[in-house]
Amino acid sequence: MATLPSRPQQRPPLLRQAIKIRRRRVKDLQNPLPQTAPEIQPPSHHFSPEQRALLYEDALYTVLHRLGRPEPNHVTEASELLRYLQEAFHMELEEHQQALQRVRKLEKPTFCLKATVKQAKGILGKDVSGFSDPYCLLGIEQGVGAPGGSPGSRRQQKAVVKHTIPEEQTHRTQVVTQTLNPVWDETFILEFEDITNSSFHLDMWDLDTVESVRQKLGELTDLHGLRRIFKEARKDKGQDDFLGNVVLRLQDLRCREDQWYPLEPRTETYPDRGQCHLQFQLIHKRRATSASRSQPSYTVHLHLLQQLVSHEVTQHQAGSTSWDGSLSPQAATVLFLHATQKDLSDFHQSMAQWLAYSRLYQSLEFPSSCLLHPITSIEYQWIQGRLKAEQEEELAASFSSLLAYGLSLIQRFRSVFPLSVSDSPARLQSLLRVLVQMCKMKAFGELCPNTAALPQLVTEALQTGTTEWFHLKQQHHQPMMQGMLEAGKALLGLVQDIIGDLHQCQRTWDKIFHNTLKIHLFPMAFRELQWLVAKRVQDYTEAVGDAVSPEMGESLFQLYISLKELCQLRPSSSERDGVMALESFHRWFQPAIPSWLQKTYSVALARVQRAVQMDELVPLGELTKHSTSAVDLSTCFAQISHTARQLDWPDPEEAFMITVKFVEDTCRLALVYCSLIKARARELSSGQKDQAQAANMLCVVVNDMEQLRLVIGKLPAQLAWEALEQRVGAVLEQGQLQNTLHAQLQSALAGLGHEIRTGVHTLAEQLEVGIAKHIQKLVGVRESVLPEDAILPLMKFLEVELCYMNTNLVQENFSSLLTLLWTHTLTVLEEVAASQRSSSLASNRLKIALQNLEICFHAEGCGLPPEALYTATFQALQRDLELQAASSRELIRRYFCGRIQQQAETISEELGAVTVKASYRTSEQKLRVELLSASSLLPLDSNGSSDPFVQLTLEPRHEFPELASRETQKHKKDLHPLFDETFEFLVPAEPCRKPGACLLLTVLDYDTLGADDLEGEAFLPLCEVHGLSGSEEPGEVPQTRLPLTYPAPNGEPILQLLEGRKGDREAQVFVRLRRQRAKQASQHALRPAP
Fold first, then answer.
1. From CA 726, how far away is CA 778, in angstroms rounded?
2. Model-level pTM?
3. DSSP string over 522-555
4. Contact between 936 and 1089 (Cβ < 8 Å)
5. What span, in angstroms and rounded, lies between the C-alpha atoms of 274 and 49?
6. Class of the domain covering 594-732
7. I need a labelling partner for 121 at 20 to 30 A (CA). Which of 1, 223, 578, 605 fits?
8. Which H or E run includes 605?
9. % the chain with pLDDT above 70
C-alpha cells in the first residue's frame, strides 16, 4: 500500500519514478543514447489462489442468499448468475460444485430490513391549531401470514403496531411538532427470519399532551378547532391520535426501494391522510463467509468489482471488440446484490469503483472515460474526514499511481496512441481529461498536496518523451554498414521521421493538449528536436568535407531538402523562444552546390539524348502536333525548375549565381535539342523516297522547336525572377540581372527562332514553286475561259497544301508559313502583272486571283490577320491590277478624276487662274458657262506678254460625243484678260453627274506662225455646278476661281497603260492629245511676270 509523502515538495515514489525529466542541455547533443527512465510497472489485477477462493465463496454466498424482487434490468435466475461467476473466476466445473456445496452448508446470514423514514406530506391536523405533532412507530410482523395486497383489505386491518408487534421489536421516530409536512430522515435496522411471512408496519401518530382549556382556546383558529376541543373533551387524557399507517409485504420489496407511500386509515373516515417517503434496503448481518469475517466489507466489494470488471474487459478483447465501460446484466446484478447486502454507502461504492478501475486501467485496455464517473461521484460526495486513515492512504496511492501511469503514457504517446489507429486522438484526449478532472478534485488536493501542477508535469513528460523518441528513432535508423554514404541515408531517414512527427503534432496532438491543458506541444517538440537534429547534421557535413562525389551530392541534396522542409514547419515568432539552431543550416551544404548543379545538368542532358533517340517524329495526336521528345523535354525542364525551387538558396548573391547557372544550362540544352532533333530527322528520312513523309517529319521538327520555345519562355515565371530581383536588389548593381538572365534568355529564344524560321522556310519553298507555276498558267488560259474558272487550279492547290500544313503544324508555325507564302505570292503576282500590263483580260484574271487569294489566306479570321495581309506591296498591286484590268474609257474617266483631285488640291496660282460662273438649267437641259476673266498668266511671247484665249471642252469625250469644243475671243498682249463671254451646252444632266465629268478650260497663247502655246489647264467638276442637283434655289450664280495647272511632265500610270493598248484608237487619240499638252507644258519654264 502506497503512503503519502511526508516532506514538502516531494512527490510520491511512483510519480518520481514516472517523470524523471531531463532538460536539454548542450551535453544532451553529445550523448546520442541517454539512459531512459524505466517504465511504470502497473499494479497487478490478479489475486492469489487463496484470495480468489475466498472472494469466490463470498460471491456465491451473495447469490444464494439473495433477497427481494430483482431490479428491472437485472438477472432473475440464480443459476445464470452462478454460471457467470464460474466463468468470471475461471473455475472448473468440479471446483465450482465443491465451492457451491461448501457455501450452502454455511450458516445463513441475519436478514435485515434497513428502513429510513425520510418525511411525510399532507398529513391530517389533529390539534386545535390545525397542525399535528407526528411521530412514527415501525417494526416487522413475522410468522402470521402476509397481509392482503389490495387497498381495500388494508383499510380493514384495525390492528396497529402497538397491538401486533412486541414492544422490544418496535422502533419509534422523533416527534416533529406543529407541522403537516414532518421531516425525520431516521434509519432503523429491522431483523427478520423469513421474508415470505414477514411484513413491514408503520403507524403515524399525533402526540397528545395534557393542556388547559385556556391554552387550547388560545390556539383556536377556526370552527374546526372548536369542534376538536369538544371531541378531545370526550376522550381520555393523553391519548394520541392515529394519523395513518403503511403495511408492506417484504417479499414485494426490491433490494432497494425509495418512494412515497400513501398513509392508510383504520376506518373510512378521512381516506386521504397524506403520504410518507420511505427508503428500504434488504441487507445482511453476520455473514458466515471467511472474507466477510476477516476483511472489511468495502475491501471485499472492491476485490469482487476488480475481478468482475477484469473478466468483462477480457471477454470483449477475446471477441476483438473494445469494452465501452458497460457491465453485463450478470455482473451488474452480482455487484448490486453484494453492495446492497454489505450495506455499502454510495460513496464507498464509488471509491471502490475508482480504485478498481484505476488499477485495471494500468494493466488492461479499456477507455479511460470509464474513470470519469467514479471521479465525479467521489468529488460530489467528498467530505473531509469521512474515510479512515488506511482508506485515505489507499485513495492517495491510487491517485499517485494513476497520475504516474498517465504521465508515462503521455511521455510515450507517439507509440501508445499511434495515428494509424483511428481512435488514438480520442483516447489520448480522454486520458488527459481524466487526469485534469482527478487533479481538480478536493480529495486529490487534500491527499496529495505536494504534487506539482498537472500542466508542469505533462510539459516535463512531453519534453522527456520527445528526447527519448528522438534517440529511439536514431537507434532505429542506425546503418548496418559503416560509411559516410550509409550514415547520410540514416540521417535523412531520421529527419524525415521528425518531419512526419512534427506534422502530426501540428495537425492533431497540439490541439488536444492545448484544449485540455493549454499546452502547445508543437513549439515545444520543434524546439527540442531542432537542436538534436542540428548537432548531428552539422557534424555529418563537417565530416563529409569539400570532396563531394555524385552519390554523396545526391544524398546531401535530399538531406538539404528535408531540412528545408523541417525549417518551414517552425512555429510563429509568438510561439517560438530562443535561437533557431537551424537558422543558417544552408551554409553547411555550400561545398555541395557545384556537385548539385553538375548532376542536374548531366541528368537533364542524358534525358534529352534518350528522348530524341527514341523519338519517331510522329505527332502524339490530332490536337497535339509535337512528338514525344518535346513532351520529355518539357518534363525535363520542369524538373530543372523544380530543383531550382527546391534549392531556393537563402543567400541572395549566391542564389543569383545559381539561377544564372540554371538558365545557362537550360538554354544550352535547348540548342543541343535542336541539333539532335534535326539530326534525328535526317537519320529517319535518309533512304526514303516519299517526300510527303519527309515533309511530315519536318513539320514535327518545327513543332517540337516551337513547343520548346514556349517552354523556354516560361523560365522567368518558373524560376521566380521577379522575387529574385527583389532579393538581390541590395547586393547587385542595377540592371545586372537584366543584362545577365534576360540576355541569356533572349539569346536562346533568338537561336530557337532562327531554327524555326529555317524549318518553316524549307516547307514554304516546296509550296512556292507550285504557286508560281499555277499563277503563270493563269494568264495563258484561252480568252473564252471565265476568270473564276481560270483560277480554280490555283485555289485547289492551295486548299490541299494549306489544309495539310494546318493539320501538321502548330498555329504559330502555320502562321509563319502563311506569311512567307503570302509574301512570295504577292511577288509572283507583281512580276506577272508587270508583263501583262497591256492585256486587260490577263490583268482582270490576276485581279480576281488576288481577291480569292486574299480570302484564302485570311480564312475568315483563322489565317493571316489584316495587318499581315494588307501590306504596302498588296495595296500597290491591288491598285495596279485595278487599273490594268479597267477598260480604256474607265481609265480615261479615272484620269480626269485624278486631274479634278489635283485641281482641288492646288492652291498656288503660279501659272495664273481663270474665273467662271457655271450653272445648269434642268428645264432646258442646258449648261451655262460664263467665262469672266483670266489673271496672272505667264508671258509666253518674246515681247514679254501673251495673246491668250480659252478653249472650253466637256470631258471625257465619250460621255459628250456630240458637243464640240468652244473658244473665246483672243486678247492681244494681255496677261489679265477680261473675257466676259457666255457659252451654253445642250446636255442631259445624267452624264454631268458621273465621276470624272468636267469642264476642261485650256488657256492658250495664240501664235500666228506656229502652234499655240499652253498657258495652263483648269478642271471644273460638273457635279458641283450650280443647279445640277436640283436643290439650289434660283439666284446669283457664284463665281469659281480655278488655278491653272500643268499635266505631269513624266506622264502618268494611266496614260502609260493607255499608250500600251495599240489597237484601241480612242485610247491612242486621248494619249496623243495628253502627251501634246505635256510636251507644251515642258517647253515653258516658269518666268516671272514683267
1. 63
2. 0.65
3. HHHHHHHHHHHHHHHHHHHHHHH-S---HHHHHH
4. yes
5. 56
6. mainly alpha
7. 223
8. helix 593-614
9. 88
Of 13-22, 173-182, 895-904, 937-946, minimum mean pLDDT range = 13-22
* The CATH number of domain 110-285, selected from 2.50.20.10, 3.90.1150.10, 3.40.50.720, 2.60.40.150: 2.60.40.150
Angstrom distance (rounded) from CA 347 to CA 366: 23
Q: Note the pLDDT tens digit of each residue in 132-174.
A: 999 999 999 987 554 544 444 444 444 567 778 888 889 999 9
Q: Which amino acid is at 160?
A: V
pLDDT tens for each residue of 652-701 = 888 888 888 988 999 999 899 999 988 888 888 876 666 777 788 888 88
Number of other CB atoms surrounding residue 256 within 10 Å: 16
Note the pLDDT of residue 878: 79
CATH fold group of domain 888-1082: Immunoglobulin-like (2.60.40)
Residue ranges per structural domain of the chain:
110-285, 477-571, 594-732, 764-885, 888-1082
Q: Round to whole Å and give the CA distance between 629 and 263.
A: 103
Q: Is the dihedral of CA 855, 856, 859, 861 positive or negative?
A: negative
Q: Cα 416 from chain centroid? A: 32
Please return the burial class of 142, using the count of CB atoms within 10 Å of its CB with bins 0-12, 13-18 and 19+: middle
Q: Which residues contact 754 (CB under 8 A, 6 or more apart)?
A: none
Residue 5 is placed in which grid cell?
509523502
More reliable by pLDDT, 147 or 722: 722
The CA-atom distances, in angstroms, between 804 and each of 670, 699, 814, 863 are 28, 10, 10, 14
Which amino acid, 652?
Answer: P
Cα–Cα nearest to 613, from 640, 637, 632, 635 = 632
Domains 110-285 and 888-1082 share a fold: yes
User: H-helix or E-strand containing 405?
Assistant: helix 389-411
Q: How many CB atoms lie under 10 A from the CB of residue 767?
A: 21
pLDDT band at 384 (very low <50, low <70, confident <90, very high): low
The rounded distance, in Å, linking the Cα atoms of 1034 and 1026 is 9
Q: CA-CA distances (angstroms) from residue 94 to 15, 289, 330, 584, 785?
A: 45, 20, 22, 76, 125
Beta bridge partners of 278: 117, 259
Residue 628, pLDDT above cutoff 80 = yes
User: What is the rounded distance in angstroms from the CA atom of residue 341 to the CA atom of residue 255?
Assistant: 8
Distance between the two ends of the chain, CA-based, in angstroms? Answer: 148
DSSP state of 259: E
Q: What is the DSSP letter of 667?
A: H
CATH number of 764-885: 1.20.58.1100
Cell of 1023: 457635279
